[in-house]
Write a structure and sequence with these properties.
Layout lengths: L4 E2 L9 E4 L3 H6 L6 E2 L5 H13 L2 H21 L11 E4 L5 H13 L4 E3 L2 H15 L6 E5 L6 H10 L3 E3 L1 H5 L17 H13 L7 E4 L4 E2 L2 E2 L2 H8 L3 E6 L2 H11 L1 H4 L2 H9 L2 H4 L1 H12 L3 H24 L7 E4 L8 H13 L12
Parallel strand pairs: 1-5, 2-3, 2-4, 4-5, 6-8, 6-11, 7-8, 11-12
Antiparallel strand pairs: 9-10
Helix pairs in contact: 2-3, 5-8, 6-16, 10-15, 12-14
């Protein structure tokens, strides 16, 4: 059946990409745009695997074949019932084995021009890993640095609104980056899924134009950023140091941590994670502010006692470009942030090679 197999480079030639792995495998990561049509359910795959180890390969194959046949029949009657005669699907499973081969053979028997992805998902994953090494250094970045509460994420989104190229790593990671950055009831993507989203974003950029991105540590919650990206951001990238008055930073944190204040037990758990850094006595004081509903006082103490010292300790070491950073006074609570974003675009486009700039009033 080798003639039915095609390389990853041909994936764009097909009408649909069909992932026949289990829903759990699909949820962990998949080729962008793929449709999940599992030939084995999560439970069925466990049954077949257990039978293979505890009974025999033959019995496992026989039971698995019956399950696969029933599931393929169900997909033909439902998921693919409306596909036209000239439909061309590309089928893949974990490594280009029996699951995708079975679906491919049956679809060709129907009359569709189905093909199987050579090497399956593992081939796609190898391509992603290779791209994680190759793509980040090919782009020019402008890194937004600044203390917590400076509204860098808001500025990044405003830049996108006025046409700048932006890479929102926290949005891709579904996490705000700090120890308090977890969003209640929102699960972060798997590392593989994040990698897929990151590569899709990087491939969409015009390398002739800069990409604005927030300064981040190597880890965003449970997600690890690729070393090649970190090296690009920490090395030769242009830096913009965003400055915001403390009162406005407190206002911003009160607003952005509102979801945590509405779930005080979750906030309490996050604060307790800071005990090794600040000691139990200090954290108990902060917990008392939380229990008393003193949102502004708690936000201010987090800024002055936790976030600002951490920024001072790490930022200068991690971002070489901060030594010649472009200063930018920002007001994140403004109703319309686009004029400020446009001012920053003008500022970064006119900055000379020495990093000397004239800061506009915004």
């Amino acid at each position: 059946m080798n003639f039915l197999r095609v390389p990853l480079e041909s994936a764009g030639d097909f009408d649909d990409i069909i992932d026949v792995r289990t829903p759990l495998e699909f949820a962990d990561d998949h080729i962008p745009g793929a449709i999940n049509a599992p030939v084995l359910s999560n439970e069925e795959r466990v049954i077949v695997g257990t039978m293979y180890k505890q009974v025999s390969a033959f019995d496992a194959s026989r039971a698995g074949a019956a399950m696969v046949a029933r599931n393929i029949a169900a997909h033909l009657e439902t998921t693919f019932a409306d596909r036209p005669r000239n439909w061309r699907p590309l089928i893949y499973c974990w490594r280009g084995g029996k699951r995708s081969e079975s679906m491919t053979v049956v679809m060709n028997m129907v009359g569709w021009r189905a093909r199987q992805l050579e090497g399956g998902y593992k081939t796609y994953r190898r391509d992603i890993v290779t791209s994680l090494d190759a793509l980040p250094p090919m782009l020019d970045y402008i890194v937004l640095a600044g203390h917590t509460g400076s509204g860098k994420t808001r500025l990044l989104r405003a830049l996108a609104d006025v046409g700048a190229q932006t890479l929102d790593l926290e949005a891709l990671a579904m996490h705000r980056g700090s120890v308090l950055g977890a969003v209640p009831d929102v699960r972060q993507p798997s590392q593989r899924s994040f990698d897929t989203s990151l590569i899709a974003a990087l491939r969409g950029f015009d390398p002739r134009r800069p990409v604005f991105v927030e300064a981040e540590s190597r880890r965003i919650g449970l997600i690890t950023l690729p070393e090649t990206l970190m090296a690009s951001l920490r090395g030769t990238a242009t830096c913009v140091e965003v400055s915001v008055p403390v009162e406005e930073r407190v206002d911003l944190l009160v607003q952005e941590y509102g979801h945590l204040l509405a779930q005080p037990e979750h906030f309490r758990t996050q604060l307790l994670r800071l005990v090794p850094l600040h000691g139990r006595v200090v954290i108990d004081q902060w917990l008392a502010l939380l229990d008393a509903g003193q949102q502004r006082e708690l936000s201010e103490v987090l800024i002055t006692k936790h976030y600002d010292p951490a920024y001072s300790r790490s930022s200068r070491k991690l971002l070489q470009g901060l030594a010649t950073a472009i200063p930018f006074a920002f007001h994140p609570m403004a109703q319309d942030l686009r004029p400020q974003a446009q001012a920053l675009l003008a500022l970064t486009s006119t900055a000379d090679a020495s990093g000397c700039t004239v800061v506009p009033q915004v």
